[in-house]
Specification:
Strands 3-2-4-5-1-6-7-8-9 form a 9-stranded mixed β-sheet, sandwiched between helices. Helix 4 (76-86) packs antiparallel against helix 6 (97-107), helix 7 packs antiparallel against helix 8 and helix 8 (147-171) packs across helix 15 (307-321). It has 2 domains: 9-171, DNAb Helicase, Chain A (Orthogonal Bundle), CATH 1.10.860; 203-448, 3-Layer(aba) Sandwich (Rossmann fold). Strand 7 and strand 8 (428-435) form a beta hairpin. It has helices spanning 20-34, 39-44, 55-69, 76-86, 90-93, 97-107, 113-142, 147-171, 176-189, 203-209, 228-241, 255-267, 271-275, 282-289, 307-321, 343-361, 391-395, and strands at residues 217-222, 246-250, 297-300, 325-329, 365-370, 398-407, 412-422, 428-435, 440-448. By secondary structure, the chain is α/β, with parallel strands linked by helices.
């Protein structure tokens, strides 16, 4: 939490989590740890220092980790020796620290060490969640911050805990042979990879990326006027047409402007006529009337948005509407949490947080981004042209660059694209037709390679 919203730990009642039962479970885990390897290795996969609520047990576990890191066998004697070196022995047993250690060592049957570690992890998670929610409740009473900020902070705290738990699960060791069996099974069944992807709807691009993957951050960058907002809207409509709800954060256009562009794309009526409705003729009216209801697209058009507010809105939309893809138009318009930071730090922090939100929500985030002024609309850009921060490339899982190509006629031009970065995937170029009057992108062809 931010310093402004934090509640002092001494104001939160934690007596429930320091009950005799909880202490007995902690002591059982410490007993297992003091019996050394391999029990320490098994236990440490499930618990960490923060899992312990009693200070003495925290000190012992921390010291056992240090002893193990030095390659020394863990035992009551080696832990006691390290405690003496750190001048911390009195923190675990007062005048009799050695006796305290040997009592813990002999107290429990180590055969149940892993079972106790799993129980302790469950208690620790509930304790952490309880403290976070208690802190949020206290904020509602004492904080002068706006309610929206407190809600955003509370959601971030809860989802942050969920993200930490997911990360812990991912750290658990599993035999590679399990993945081998799954692969062979899919090959035998001639079934595709189970990973979910959301195609853009443009064959030349999807042949390169396969679709947008949940938990990934994709940057789409171009100079102003190239059509990146129109491209993002077209992708949103294509994904929504497949029954996948999409959430668009539009910091530049309101929902009415977005609807005008969506109608132009779907009806082929020029955007200029939809903006100035008195220019519409009977044929235009008929084409507009023939457009099916645009479903599965949700829009947030707040012109001033912080990353915390975006994360809160995204998490809410995923829960309430089943949103599968999030689009942000565009990165440089996000409001900085700390205006005193330089621009590179602000943008770098925003991309890191967007990546975190994507993983928390289990959705791809497609984030539009400006290119710097060193490039022109019709010059091929590169990754070092990303504006304001080198961390954009570093934090992104995929970077798509767009620029203008040749003119095919008075109403149609070519937009060149390049997948300049893709983790675990290929890079390459693609082309799309762009019908300027109705701001519509269409399939064209594919060119591989750089």
């Amino acid at each position: 939490m931010t310093a402004e919203l934090a509640v002092p730990a001494d104001q939160i009642d934690t007596t429930f989590w320091t009950s005799p039962t909880a202490q007995e479970i902690e002591n059982a885990v410490i007993s297992a740890v003091l019996h050394g390897q391999p029990m320490f290795d098994h236990v440490s996969q499930h618990v960490g220092i923060q899992s312990f609520s009693f200070h003495a047990n925290r000190v012992i576990f921390q010291t056992a980790m240090e002893v193990d890191a030095d390659g020394v066998p863990i035992s009551p004697a080696s832990v006691y020796e390290r405690l003496i070196q750190k001048n911390q022995a009195r923190e675990i047993g007062g005048e009799r620290p050695a006796v305290y250690l040997f009592d813990r060592y002999q107290e429990w049957q180590v055969l149940n060490g892993v079972a106790f570690a799993k129980r302790l992890r469950d208690i620790a998670v509930k304790r952490d969640l309880s403290m976070r929610l208690s802190s949020a409740a206290q904020l509602c009473i004492t904080s002068k911050a706006p309610a929206d900020d407190i809600m955003a902070e509370t959601e971030e705290m809860v989802f942050g805990l969920a993200s930490e738990l997911d990360a812990a699960k991912n750290r658990e060791v599993a035999p590679l042979s399990e993945a081998q069996f799954r692969l062979i099974e899919r090959i035998d069944q001639k079934s595709p990879s189970p990973e979910t992807r959301y195609p853009s709807g443009y064959e030349s691009l999807d042949n390169l990326i396969g679709g947008f993957r949940p938990g990934r951050l994709c940057i789409v960058a171009a100079r102003p006027g190239v059509g990146k907002s129109a491209f993002a809207l077209a992708v949103a409509l294509n994904i929504a047409d497949e029954g996948n709800p999409v959430l668009m954060f539009s910091l530049e256009m309101d929902s009415d402007e977005i609807m005008q562009r969506a109608m132009a794309i779907r009806s082929s009526v020029p955007l200029s006529k939809l903006i100035e409705a008195n220019r519409l003729n009977n044929d235009d009216y008929q084409r507009i009337a023939d457009v099916p209801r645009i479903a599965n697209v949700f829009v947030s058009d707040a012109p001033s948005l912080t990353i915390a507010q975006l994360g809160s809105a995204a998490r809410s939309a995923v829960r309430r509407h089943g949103v599968k893809v999030v689009i942000l138009d565009y990165l440089q318009l996000l409001v900085a949490d700390n205006p005193r930071e330089n621009r590179n730090q602000q943008v770098g922090a925003h991309t890191r947080q967007l990546k975190q939100i994507a993983r928390q929500c289990g959705v791809p985030i497609i984030c539009l981004c400006q290119l710097n002024r060193e490039t022109t609309e019709d010059a091929e850009p590169s990754l070092n042209h990303l504006r304001d921060s080198g961390e954009i490339e570093q934090n992104a899982d995929m970077v798509i660059l767009l620029w203008r190509g040749h003119e095919d006629g008075p109403q149609t031009s070519t937009i060149n694209g390049k997948v300049a970065k893709q983790r675990n995937g290929t890079t390459g170029k693609f082309e799309l037709n762009y019908r300027r009057l109705c701001v519509r992108f269409e399939n064209r062809g594919l060119r591989y390679g750089e």
